[in-house]
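INFO  loader      accepted 1 record
INFO  loader      residues=329
INFO  predictor   begin
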Amino acid sequence: METDPDPGTEQYEKVAKIGTGAYGTVYKARDLKNGGEFVALKRVRVQTGEEGMPMSTIREIALLRQLESFEHPNVVRLLDICHGTVAEKETKLTLVFEHVDQDLHTYLEKCPAPGLGPDRIKDIMHQLLSGVEFLHMHRVVHRDLKPQNILVTSNGQVKLADFGLARHYSFQMALTSVVVTLWYRSPEVLLQASYATPVDIWSVGCIFAELHTRKAIFQGNSDIDQLNKIFDVIGTPCKEEWPEEVSLPWSSFQPRLAIPLESLLPEVEPLAKDMLDKMLCFNPHRRITAKEALQHAYFVGEEAVQERLQEAASSRSLTENTFETSPEK
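INFO  predictor   done
INFO  writer      dumping tokens
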């Protein structure tokens, strides 16, 4: 491919088209000013009004720049932002990211039988949750976590990609079957209810299950079908937990009981199952957070958790004794 003709991107020579999705077209390219190292160019179209680029887009770019300054090992690096051509009601931007050859979907496809071992699954999950916790700590909700948006380097490092863009940018790009997949969307998103950071934890839980079987745990073909696939596993929630003012009433779904996750994931370890249960919780307010998950016994071990609980109990006891023995003023 020839060097990109768009203004501001002359230093990048496109090598191959990686893919087209809801948020833009991605190319593999060489950075001609930095020794020809490979980068990923993400072409996006931003809707503009009479007053120019919307403030939401400007805020999002500033946020991406802020996140990049931390250089988190589990978030793909944003190297540059190039402003391209400006047309009527539309501005083209090119986001330049570090290039990683494969995503988690490809990584799992290439994995030889019988699949990933428990130690590798634990390593991937810890890296994934570390990246998610970093985003949530900076008030960024990914909203589209799935194996295709998680990159895996040649040395096994996991990096989140395509984060934060869906919240503000509006694109006129053709949707592909990969992009519109429902399989990792949380119940509150499927019901069009209000949502926050727990939506990402649901997606991580779906990915966690997939690491064990190498196939998606919930494979629906519509919003209603996806919800039914979810309720077939976790059970239909009680009416009191059903969110108000949503697209589908609670009565739309047949009542059913939850099934043990180990029946679907026979190789899952007890502690892994416990964490997965806490991730695939219908009520987002009761769903485990990324920070809590990283402190779960699955990662730190049951003994460490018990020691922590004993230390907390001792600390509370010491505080109570201090108040009891304090002399009155």
